[in-house]
Structures are given as C-alpha cells and as structure tokens.
Write a structure and sequence with these properties.
By secondary structure, this protein is of the alpha/beta class. It folds into 3 domains: 84 residues, Winged helix-like DNA-binding domain superfamily/Winged helix DNA-binding domain (Arc Repressor Mutant, subunit A); 94 residues, D-Maltodextrin-Binding Protein, domain 2, CATH 3.40.190.10; 101 residues, Periplasmic binding protein-like II (D-Maltodextrin-Binding Protein, domain 2, 3-Layer(aba) Sandwich). The chain is built from 10 helices and 12 strands. Strands 3, 4, 5, 6, 7, 8, 9, 10, 11 and 12 form a 10-stranded mixed sheet that branches. The chain has a two-stranded antiparallel sheet with strand order 1-2. The longest helix is centred in the N-terminal third of the chain and has 28 residues. The mean pLDDT is 92.
C-alpha cells in the first residue's frame, strides 16, 4: 500500500520552493540537507510528478510544482488554523454556551457577568434563554443549556452554587392606603388582593409567602397568578392587587407603583448557578470562573 502524503512533506516542499535552495531550506527546517533532499524525492515519487528541477547551481519549480505550491500553502494554512482552533477550544476561548436564567437574574447579576465573559472570550457564541426554575432544571438535564441561573432548592442531582440573594418587597398602587408608610406589616395586608406567581414556578418561595401570611393569622386572597414579575408589577399598576416582588425590580420605572419593605422578616429570593456534575466543557469552566470572580469582588 502506498504511503500517504503527510503534512511534513508539504512543509518541506513549500520551504524549498520559497527559498529555492536546499541548504537554506534545511537550515530553516532544522534538518540536514540529505534528509530534506530524500524527503522531496519521496514526495515526488508519491505524487508521480517532478516538482523541482535541480542542477548543481540552481533549483527551479517545474510547472506542476508551481501549481502544487499554491495548493500546498493553502493546505498548510488550513492545517495551522485547525490546530490553532482546537487548541483555543481546549482553552475555552472558542465554542458555544447556552445559558438559562430567570427574570430576577436579568435585573441583578446576569448583565455584568455576561459582559465580563464576552469581553474576555469574544469568540464564544452565547445563547441566553429566559425560563422559570423548573423549566431550566429540565433543560439542564436534557443538555439544552449548559448553565442555569435559577432559584433553589431543586431536586435534580446537579452542581449548584449560591450567587445572590435579596429580600422581597411589596409592590402596591401609588394611591394605596398604605403607600404613605415607609414599611408595612404583613398583618396590614390581610384584606388585600394578592397577585402571585404560580406555585409551579417557585414552590419554595410560594410556600414561604403563604406561611408568612398564616403566621399573621390569615390566608391570602389570590386573585391572579402570573409570571414574570414585570407582568405582576403591571397588574399592580392596573389596580388588580398587591404583589411580592424582588427588591431589584424597584429599578423598573413603572408609573403608578410604589414599593414598601416588610416590617417582619421578608421572604428571601435566592439565586444560584447550576450545572451538570459531569460537565467538562472548557467554555463552561471559564464561565464559572467569571462567576466566582464576580462573587468575590
């Protein structure tokens, strides 16, 4: 079986063709001149074509050699590019990363983390998907996303690290009877209409809000269950009721809505980053490093 042409054969030929001198070419390649001459002859034998015309004084390209030179240079450039790309991929400098996130992440940690990552790794293709925690959990297990910003606890066996936590505040219409107060007691909300997120979206936090009301001696009158939180705030502005929302959402300028802290210990919304235990992606590892840097700053 005939041996195949190897990249080293092409590299030897291109070097000789560029300098048209076996001695200088051998010196550039770090091999002896007899070895180089033998390898060029071997290449010509494999191709069945004379690439170089040699005399004692000069080395010249034959017409087939001149045509082959252009193709050989292109192949070597492609090979070098492929090697560089795979090396950068191993370093996590190129590749893809699908990120899941909840609405509160968008108003807190996500923009700065993503911006830092993009500045550091501009050739990584990022796709972002907004979903509630249960949907992100499923997407993570199904490998539809590689990392998720979600709200613990979750049941899936994944790695998880707390990133951020914030208290919930009460959003109410600006003309509400309690709007003049700087803070409100949960007991003051006993007769109010509540706008909550569906239990399936955040079962732990949903139960925490109901428990807080129960401790105050009442069961909340839930008139609407919607998501995401900006929609809840819109319904508050429409006078439908009051809502518990993340404190960070106070940054949303919504006419007709005010926010008040609870006098009691408020429910806390935790945000964590989650990824599969067996994930080995260099891109993911770089992203987690950026998150850790953000947490420690």
């Amino acid at each position: 079986m005939t041996s195949p042409v190897e990249l080293r054969h092409l590299r030897y030929f291109v070097t000789v063709a560029q300098v048209l001198h076996f001695g200088r070419a051998a010196e550039q390649l770090g091999i002896t001149q007899p070895v180089l001459s033998d390898q060029i002859r071997r290449l010509e034998t494999l191709l069945g074509v004379q690439l170089l015309h040699r005399t004692k004084r000069v080395v010249q390209l034959t017409e087939p050699g001149r045509i082959f030179l252009a193709d050989a240079m292109r192949l070597l450039a492609q090979a070098d590019a492929a090697i560089a790309t795979v090396q950068r991929a191993a370093q996590g400098a190129v590749g893809k990363l699908a990120i899941g996130y909840t609405g509160p992440a968008l108003y807190t940690v996500l923009p700065e983390i993503v911006r830092t990552f993009r500045d550091r790794y501009p050739e990584v293709e990022l796709t972002l998907h907004e979903n509630c925690t249960p949907e992100q959990e499923s997407a993570l297990i199904a490998d539809e996303i590689q990392v998720a910003f979600l709200h613990p606890p979750i049941d899936s066996p994944v790695s998880m690290q707390d990133v951020f936590c914030e208290s919930m505040v009460v959003a109410m219409p600006e003309d509400h009877r309690l709007a003049e107060q700087s803070s409100v007691s949960i007991k003051d909300l006993a007769q109010e209409s509540f706008i909550l997120f569906p239990r399936t979206v955040g079962p732990y936090l949903y139960s925490r809000i109901l428990s807080l009301c129960a401790q105050a001696g009442f069961s909340p009158k839930v008139v609407q269950e919607v998501t995401p939180q900006p929609t809840m705030i819109g319904l508050v502005a429409a006078g439908i009721g009051i809502a518990f929302v993340s404190a960070s959402l106070q940054s949303i300028s919504r006419p007709g809505v005010v926010y008040r802290a609870l006098q009691e210990e408020a429910p806390v919304l935790k945000l964590a980053i989650a990824w599969k235990d067996d994930a080995r992606s260099p891109v993911l590892q770089n992203f987690l490093q950026v998150v850790n840097e953000w947490r420690s700053h």
